[in-house]
């Protein structure tokens, strides 16, 4: 059984327009072959539910950079995780003042600022502000300050990851850990072994790409390319030549043509 895990922004969604129009042929191909697609994004459950619905997807989703798992087959959004976000923001408030001032997150910004930072509509930006597990934002300090910030946050039980667009604070988990959890659940329910394919474009996707049986880096010129790892040199990670959903469509079709699906 093959299961595809995919990041959204800059991968399955265009970095600027958030459209997945160019990936529709590949999405239809997966659906026709009954290959599950699990979205794995830094977005919130509130943001991802309408996207999953528009794509015709139902089932588990990895939300807020792997900090939680949601299930679109359940109509009511989960209340899970509210306490996690509260503990995270408290940990930031307890950092030294000179470091606190270097970070601004979605909780600090009003709706107008979130719209400006993300390019989302006001309605979509409001969904982006419904954080349960994590806090994306901007770090304005020096690299030395960022290193100290990450070190002290780590000591408080949290981590920070740089995505394609934002610097995100979250619990010590990852998309890779959640991918393994979802894959194990699907294997148990289907009685089949699971082969994982993961697609992403940012540093926050790298662990997931490394852990997948096949990882695919989607080109995104808006940030530096992901580093070449041993797993890529050994042929387990591929790169698209096209960007965003065009590259996503390209790589899914390439796997099918190569007989990997």
From TrEMBL:
Biological-process GO terms, alphabetical: mannosylglycerate biosynthetic process
One GO molecular-function entry: magnesium ion binding
Gene Ontology cellular component terms for the protein in this record: cytosol
Pfam family, one: Hydrolase_3
Domain of life the protein comes from: Bacteria
InterPro entries: HAD-like_sf, HAD-SF-IIB-MPGP, HAD-SF_hydro_IIB, HAD_sf
Segments traversing the membrane: none
UniProt keyword annotations, A-Z: Hydrolase, Magnesium, Metal-binding
PANTHER family noted in UniProt: HAD SUPERFAMILY HYDROLASE-LIKE, TYPE 3 (PTHR10000:SF8), PHOSPHOSERINE PHOSPHATASE (PTHR10000)
Identification of the protein by name: HAD-IIB family hydrolase
Lineage start: Bacteria, Pseudomonadati, Pseudomonadota, Alphaproteobacteria, Hyphomicrobiales
């Amino acid at each position: 059984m093959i299961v595809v895990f995919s990041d959204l922004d800059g991968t399955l969604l265009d970095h600027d327009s958030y459209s997945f129009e160019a990936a529709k042929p590949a999405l239809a191909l997966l659906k026709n072959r009954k290959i599950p697609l699990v979205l794995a994004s830094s977005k919130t459950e509130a943001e991802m539910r309408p996207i999953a619905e528009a794509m015709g997807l139902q089932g588990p989703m990895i939300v807020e950079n792997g900090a939680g798992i949601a299930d679109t087959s359940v109509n009511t959004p989960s209340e899970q995780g509210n306490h996690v976000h509260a503990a995270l923001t408290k940990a930031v408030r307890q950092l030294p003042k000179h470091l606190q001032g270097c970070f601004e997150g979605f909780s600090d910004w009003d709706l107008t600022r979130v719209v400006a930072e993300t390019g989302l509509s006001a309605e979509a930006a409001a969904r982006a502000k419904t954080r349960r597990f994590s806090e994306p934002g901007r770090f304005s300090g020096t690299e030395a300050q960022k290193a100290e910030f990450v070190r002290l946050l780590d000591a408080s039980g949290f981590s920070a990851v740089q995505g394609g667009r934002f610097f995100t604070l979250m619990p010590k988990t990852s998309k890779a850990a959640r991918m393994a959890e979802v894959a194990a659940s699907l294997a148990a329910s289907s009685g089949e072994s699971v082969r994982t394919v993961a697609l992403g474009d940012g540093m926050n996707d790298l662990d997931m790409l490394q852990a997948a049986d096949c990882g695919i880096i989607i080109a995104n010129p808006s940030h530096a390319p992901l580093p070449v790892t041993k797993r890529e040199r050994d042929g387990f990670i591929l790169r698209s030549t096209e960007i965003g959903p065009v590259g996503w469509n390209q790589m899914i079709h390439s796997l099918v043509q190569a007989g990997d699906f």
